[in-house]
Write a structure and sequence with these properties.
Elements: H1 25-28, H2 31-63, H3 68-99, H4 102-124, H5 134-140, H6 145-178, H7 183-196, H8 198-216
Helix pairs in contact: 2-3, 2-6, 3-4, 4-6, 4-7, 5-6
């Protein structure tokens, strides 16, 4: 069987970095889960594009008289949240549909709920947080209309992202519960899978041997075999 070569993200050949993940929907995902998995992938792409558009919106914000902090934070969110969202919630759901792993489903639910909260905060748009949300955009219309119009684009995209994230979370949760999944099943799967891992087994063996060796090497009290009699000088 040929070894699978990592193919994602697809990087240009002149970059001295190689792809970190292998991704092939048709080869990895069962046909009944293919559509939902691709939709979640498109949602991740929408999130990445929204962060890029938000950077442009914050640039217009800066040009229109806003602070430079928003532009700096927008750049940070772009380079931070794009790879983190892929690793933290898309890869777990990709693996969950690929292997029918309850633990991966739970990892997805935990991280994607955080993604949903972040999307809502981004849509709200607290000034100074590096996002062109509703509060920041509406309040800037009184300062510079042109910049505010540009800021309105990522604001709408953040709102759409929040709505789609809620719908996606509801759909995956409904599917998971309908297929008989539960937290106890994920916990059991993790426990069983962890003890099957050779690294975990080796660590457990080393810990047991270390404990036994430590018990054997403890200093023991030495008792003399010669009796010691106490004599009194008084007769």
């Amino acid at each position: 069987m040929a070894e699978k070569v990592n193919n994602f993200p697809p990087l240009p050949k002149f970059i001295p970095l190689k792809p970190c993940f292998y991704q092939d929907f048709e080869a990895d995902i069962p046909p009944q889960h293919l559509s939902m998995t691709k939709r979640l992938y498109y949602l991740w792409m929408l999130n990445s594009v929204t962060l890029a558009v938000n950077l442009v919106g914050c640039l217009a914000w800066l040009i229109g008289g806003g602070g430079a902090t928003n532009f700096g934070l927008a750049f940070l969110w772009l380079i931070l949240f794009t790879p983190c969202s892929y690793v933290c919630w898309f890869r777990p759901i990709y693996k969950a549909f690929k292997t029918d792993s309850s633990f991966s489903f739970m990892a997805f639910f935990f991280t994607f709920m955080a993604q949903l909260v972040i999307s809502i905060i981004q849509a709200v748009g607290i000034p100074g947080w590096g996002v062109c949300g509703w509060i920041a955009t509406i309040s800037f219309f009184g300062t510079n209309v042109g910049s505010a119009v540009v800021m309105l684009i990522p604001t709408i995209m953040f709102t759409v992202m929040a709505v789609f994230s809620f719908i996606a979370l509801s759909m995956v949760h409904k599917f998971y519960r309908g297929s008989g999944g539960s937290f106890s099943k994920a916990q059991e799967e993790w426990t069983t899978g962890a003890w099957k891992n050779p690294h975990v087994q080796q660590a457990a063996q080393n810990a047991a041997m270390g404990a036994a060796q430590g018990a054997m090497n403890q200093p023991q009290t030495q008792y003399s075999t010669t009796p010691n009699y106490m004599y009194s000088n008084e007769m």
